[in-house]
């Protein structure tokens, strides 16, 4: 199938305006207007908007702060219920549906049960479903249970989920950050004592340079593009570092700017570096070398506010340009030119996505990025700092309120003191460790709240087996996805339909990537047979034989829940009064506008990579990536209009590599790795470095291995050694 010429591509544009209008009409004008203007936080990326300032307004009062992703998210939740006739089909037939078709079956509005060995999902009434869930939950041994949550849910639901697991006696509770930004949290904590963004949204209006690395906000965080346009309009620069030359990062036609639409878009990147996949660590070392050679480092800041600088400077001195060039595929001159842009800046914000974290050396890479920012004192002042681009609207909130396998000692003590509940002391399992345990037959029950664990995981066939080895799976979800249809051929599972964020009968809260906590009113009625996640979890908790006076029953009231969170989680004290005050807030101590760091010495810390190792080597290195028509694992549309691809079974390839192999656009290939293979994919030429391939996630996840970064426990989704076999 033909693709568009990449030179003609751009982000945004009139077609996105028309898509939004088409989607709004499909939803219904009244329903879409209500969904987008209600006082509820946006359901899409972690940039955040909505809440008490109103549906399409951000924390700065900017309106309209809405994007295509916001509309797409609403389109899923406003679907009609799935017809019960669908469940008359055997599981084998439903498994033939692709992700797009499954997500568009409609909203789930009845509990579904599948017995072990059965081949159908059977509708079930709520009383029987909750009784079964409670029976399996109580019977399961604590060490043979794990809980997992996506960033779709509220802080309140996440707090009850992790408390439920710990009250049962296990710390096997985690969230989707282990498949996205865990490397960020580990690296930033090592460098500056905090694992979150050091900037607020307002800082993006004060910087003169944004260095955007390993991210494609044109597709995944469209409202950030408007901030990047603002940087360029006031004379600043945007340095993009990404192996794939993304059209939306070159030019973007803002749908809310008539001038931009008429002009065919605005220039976003002032400079664009395309290193080989997985080589950013060496690029950051090269940029640091060039900064030192130019005498552009801030020696006063380094001396007064950091430690370990001498060791790092010695390390970069010993790393040769030949090594850097070989690893990155970039010339010394191009790296020095980029370093000059950085050297001229007085207020730089570094922003990045999973192009940095999805590697088996992700923590090392992020520590090198932090080093680069510290060299010029770009952390600890307004208009400068570090900005991880969170992919879901409340994934950061999940970590904040304790949905993770390890809690700090002081948090545990507050839990035990304020709640009167003893917590387990052992270290819980991260997401991949849970799946490994499942694959080994050591997990009897999994509670999965939101998300699509199967298709977020690497090694899809292996993950199916792992999940099928779990005796009983309990899913809490708004819609079905392929993760509910696969990995259950021989095992038992129960799928419970839950309210979306704006359907909750009581207010909930969410946290953005800027550590801004919003209050969502809920209150929209769409379906009659769905329940709150909090209510379901509290029901399970009430069945536990707990010691002392602690009870889950009061937590059915979200106001009581928020009071408990305020008493136990540092920085969230304002939740205790938010029901009455309606005052949303930044979590204190997160934004670093002064050079004061939460490390034992109060100094930021340079980190020296132990032994930098190149990415996996093979004929090619494959990167998995998302399309403009998807959000995380949700496929809203098959076409990727920004890259000119008409479907998702494609491999993007350097045109010179194609020419050497006599490949033309649309030629069928099979792709193989040590982990698995995908077949009958069409190859298309695209602007990316030689030796690099790109394919859509989760379609190419069967190629991704189960090996992880030893420190973040994140798989290497974007540095997969593969070979291709050309169809004759």
Automatic annotation (TrEMBL):
One protein family per Pfam: Molydop_binding
CDD domains: MopB_CT_ydeP
Top-rank taxon: Bacteria
Domain Molybdopterin oxidoreductase: 107-463
Keywords for the protein's UniProt record, in alphabetical order: Iron, Iron-sulfur, Metal-binding
Domain (Molybdopterin dinucleotide-binding) ranges: 620-721
Protein name: FdhF/YdeP family oxidoreductase
Organism expressing this protein natively: Biformimicrobium ophioploci
């Amino acid at each position: 199938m033909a693709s568009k010429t990449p030179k003609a591509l751009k982000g945004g544009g009139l077609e996105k305006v028309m898509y939004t209008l088409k989607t709004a009409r499909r939803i219904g004008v009244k329903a879409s207007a209500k969904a987008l203007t209600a006082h509820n936080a946006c359901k899409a990326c972690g940039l955040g908007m909505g809440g008490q300032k109103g549906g399409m307004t951000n924390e700065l009062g900017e309106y309209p702060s809405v994007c295509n992703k916001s509309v797409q998210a609403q389109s899923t939740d406003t679907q009609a219920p799935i017809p019960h006739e669908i469940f008359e089909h055997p599981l084998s037939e439903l498994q033939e549906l692709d992700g797009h078709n499954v997500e568009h079956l409609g909203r789930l509005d009845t509990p579904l049960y599948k017995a072990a060995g059965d081949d159908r999902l059977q509708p079930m009434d709520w009383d029987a479903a909750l009784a079964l869930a409670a029976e399996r939950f109580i019977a399961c041994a604590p060490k043979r249970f794990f809980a997992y949550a996506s960033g779709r849910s509220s802080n309140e639901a996440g707090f009850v989920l992790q408390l439920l697991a710990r009250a049962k006696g296990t710390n096997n509770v985690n969230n989707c950050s282990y498949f996205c930004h865990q490397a960020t949290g580990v690296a930033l904590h090592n460098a500056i004592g905090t694992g979150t963004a050091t900037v607020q949204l307002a800082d993006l209006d004060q910087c003169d340079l944004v260095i955007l690395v390993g991210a494609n906000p044109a597709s995944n965080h469209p409202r950030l593009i408007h901030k990047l346009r603002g940087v360029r309009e006031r004379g600043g620069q945007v340095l993009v570092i990404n192996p794939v030359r993304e059209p939306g990062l070159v030019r973007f036609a803002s749908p809310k700017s008539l001038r931009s639409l008429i002009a065919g878009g605005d220039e976003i990147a002032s400079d664009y570096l395309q290193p080989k996949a997985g080589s950013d660590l060496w690029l950051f070392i090269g940029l640091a070398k060039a900064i030192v050679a130019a005498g552009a480092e801030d020696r006063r800041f380094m001396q007064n506010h950091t430690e370990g600088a001498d060791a790092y400077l010695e390390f970069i001195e010993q790393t040769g340009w030949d090594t850097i060039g070989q690893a990155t595929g970039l010339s010394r001159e191009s790296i020095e030119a980029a370093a000059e842009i950085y050297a001229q800046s007085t207020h730089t914000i570094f922003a990045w996505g999973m192009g940095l974290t999805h590697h088996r050396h992700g923590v090392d890479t992020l520590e090198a990025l932090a080093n680069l920012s510290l060299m010029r004192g770009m952390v600890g002042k307004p208009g400068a700092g570090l900005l991880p681009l969170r992919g879901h609207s409340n994934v950061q909130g999940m970590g904040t309120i304790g949905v993770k396998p390890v809690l700090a000692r002081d948090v545990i003590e507050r839990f035990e003191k304020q709640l009167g509940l003893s917590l387990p002391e052992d270290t819980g399992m991260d997401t991949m460790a849970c799946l490994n345990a499942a694959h080994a037959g050591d997990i009897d029950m999994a509670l999965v709240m939101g998300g699509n664990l199967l298709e977020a995981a690497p090694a899809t066939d292996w993950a199916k087996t792992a999940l099928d080895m779990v005796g009983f799976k309990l899913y809490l979800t708004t819609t079905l996805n392929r993760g509910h249809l696969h990995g259950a051929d021989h095992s038992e599972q129960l799928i419970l339909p839950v309210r979306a964020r704006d359907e909750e009968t009581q207010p909930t809260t969410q946290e953005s990537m800027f550590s801004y906590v919003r209050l969502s009113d809920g209150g929209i009625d769409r379906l009659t047979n769905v329940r709150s996640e909090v209510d379901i979890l509290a029901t399970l908790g009430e069945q536990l034989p707990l010691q002392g006076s602690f009870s889950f029953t009061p937590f059915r009231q979200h106001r009581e829940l928020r009071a408990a969170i305020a008493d136990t989680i540092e920085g969230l004290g304002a939740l205790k009064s938010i029901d009455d005050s309606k005052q949303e807030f930044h979590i204190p101590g997160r934004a670093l506008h002064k050079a004061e760091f939460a490390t034992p010495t109060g100094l930021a810390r340079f980190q020296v990579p132990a032994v930098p190792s190149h990415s996996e080597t093979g004929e090619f290195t494959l990167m998995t990536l998302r399309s403009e028509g998807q959000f995380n694992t949700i496929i809203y549309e098959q076409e990727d209009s920004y890259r000119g691809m008409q479907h998702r079974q494609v491999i993007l390839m350097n045109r010179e590599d194609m020419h050497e192999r006599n490949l033309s656009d649309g030629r069928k290939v099979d792709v193989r790795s040590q982990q698995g293979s995908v077949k009958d994919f069409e190859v298309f030429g695209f602007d990316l470095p030689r030796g690099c391939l790109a394919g859509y996630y989760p379609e190419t996840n069967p190629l991704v291995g189960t090996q992880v970064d030893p420190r973040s426990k994140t798989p290497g989704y974007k540095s997969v050694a593969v070979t291709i076999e050309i169809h004759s």
